[in-house]
Amino acid sequence: MTMTERALDSTGLLLYTRPGFEREAAAEIMDQVAALGLYGFVRTREGEGAVRFVPGEAAFMEILAKELRFHDLIFARQMVRVLDVLPALSAEDRLGPILASLVEDERRYGDLLLETADTNDAKSLSVLLRKFHVPLREALKREGLLVPNASARLHVFFVSGTSVILGISHVHNASPWLMGIPRLRFPPGAPSRSTLKLDEAFGLFVQDPETEIQPGMTAVDLGAAPGGWTYQLVRRHLRTTAIDNGPMDASLLDSGLVEHLRVDGFRYRPLKPVDWLVCDMVEQPQRIARLVAEWLAEGRCRRAIFNLKLPMKKRYEMVLDCREILESRIEKAGVSCRLSFKQLYHDRAEITGYAEINSD
Questions:
Q1: I need a labelling partner for 20 at 20 to 30 A (CA). Which of 52, 121, 185, 310 fits?
Q2: Are 172 and 25 in the same domain?
Q3: Phi and psi (nearest 5°) for 66?
C-alpha cells in the first residue's frame, strides 16, 4: 500500500448497520456517492455491523460532508466521518496513540462517544469501554479538545480491544443516539413488542409532534391485532379504527378510542379521509407499497407509516422497487408527497416507510 493509499484508508465514512445488512448499506452508500459524481470503495464483512466507505480522492470528503444527508440513508444507523484508523494499539497503552492522533488533528468536540458494533462479539468490549471512558474524557479535557458548546461529537469506535476508528459527527446530520440506537422502554400495557417500532418511527419521522399528532385526530391501523401499533395511537389519544380479522387487546377496546372492524385490510377504505394510516401487515412488500400508494393518491390519509417485510435476497433492490411503486403512483395522481425510509433499530428483516402529503 502506497503512502497515498494509506492516507485515503484513514479517511472516509463509517456506517453502523444492523448485523446482516452490511451488503445493503454498502450498495446504498455507493449509489449515493455515485449520484454525486464521486467514486471509491467499501470495506465490510457480513455480520460485523459496520461498513466503511473509502473515497477515491481525499477531496471527495468535503463534498460528502456538504451534500450527503444521513437521513437519506436507509440502512445506516449512524454516519461518522473517519478521522483516523488505529489498527494495532497496545493493550498496555491505548490512550497515548488515540490522544496523539486527536492532538495532531486539533479539532474541538462537545461530546465523546465510545462505541462498538451491535454484534455479540463486540459486546465483550463493554467492560473495556466503561473503564476507558473516564480516562479518555479527562485526557481530552486536559488537552483542551473536549470543550462546552462545540457542535462536533467525537466517536471512538472499537473494532476490537486493540483496533480503533476515530471519527466525527454533527447531530444535524447523524443519529443523536449512542451507537445509533434509541433507548426505548417496552410499555407494560402494550400487547406486543411491535409497539416499539411505531414508537421509534414517530420519534424519527415526525418533525413537529405537537401539531402533527394531536389528540382527537383520526387514524386507521391496518393489520392491527393484537394491538401493538394501536397502543401507540391510543397513547397519543388518536381515534383509531383497527382493521384485522384477529382479536384485539381488550384494554385498547375499553379505552373508548378504538373501533375494531374484522374486515380485509386490503379492501377497507374509510368513509372520510383520516389523519394517519399505519400498516404492519405481513405481506409481500410490493403489495403493501401499492396499497399505501393508493391511500395517498386517493387522498384517504394525510400521513402514513408502514413496514415493508424484505426477502432474503436482493433486499436493496426490493426497496428501490417499492419506492418506485409509491413515487410513480403518487406522481400520477398529481400529489406532492414527502417520502422517507429507514431500517429502524426495532425492525428486523424489514424497513419502515413514512409518507406525508404536502399541504402547499
A1: 185
A2: yes
A3: -90, -35
- pLDDT, residue 3, reads 43
User: What is the average per-residue pLDDT within 64-77?
Assistant: 96
Which single residue is written with the C-alpha cell 384485539?
248
309 is catalytic: yes
Of 240, 222, 236, which Cα lies nearest the Cα of 278? Answer: 222
pLDDT at residue 359, rounded to an integer: 75
Position 66 pLDDT exceeds 50: yes
How many structural domains does the chain have?
2
| For residue 226, cis peptide bond before it (omega within 30 degrees of 0) | yes
- Does a structural domain hold residue 319? yes
d(CA 34, CA 106): 31
Query: Mutual orientation of helices 285-297 and 315-332 as an angle, nearest 10°?
Result: 20
Whole-number Å distance between alpha carbons of 23 and 20: 8
> What is the spatial distance between Cα 204 and Cα 210, in angstroms, rounded to a whole number?
14
Residue 354, number of CB atoms within 10 A of its CB: 18
Residue of 123, 131, 309, 313 marked active site: 309
